[in-house]
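A quick word before the example. In earlier lectures we treated sequence and structure as two separate objects. From today on, think of them as two lines of the same record. Here is SRPBCC domain-containing protein written that way.
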Amino acid sequence: MSDTHHLTATINIDHTPDEVFAAVTDVRKWWSENIIGDTAARYDEFVFTDDSKYAGETAREKKEGIRFSRFRITEVVPGERVVWHVVDSDLTFIDDRHEWTGTEVVFDITGTPEGATLHFIHKGLNSAESECFEECSRGWKFYIETSLRQLITTGTGQPFPKY
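And the structure line, produced from the sequence above:
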């Protein structure tokens, strides 16, 4: 999972690139049921938070939870690629609470004879400089390699549950 430059994960799966793409863009089914906003089209914005006190508030008001991040989808190529830009973040479990702000979350999908390969990278989080690298690696590893894989293969992921 770790990379000397950025946080990465790769899965090979016996499903088509289009099936992988559909699962990646259905973020509520593999990352968090509490996602606020749209998660599939270019320029969509969405918020991830794991604190119930933010339910119903606008994205700009969500700044005090354990984890808060606001994403803008900057690139969408169906069956091939999705890029999220982290517009704002507040990670209360580390000193540099805005460490994710300005980073990019990239999902690259490539067709293979067996199905598809999904290569995930969180650009801007690296082992040398990122305070949350180890904890974030564990989290992304679970959500990409376990939850997203299960969503693709069984139709049911393991997202952070609805509060």
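Notice the following. The chain is about 20% helix and 35% strand. We will return to this example when we discuss secondary structure assignment.
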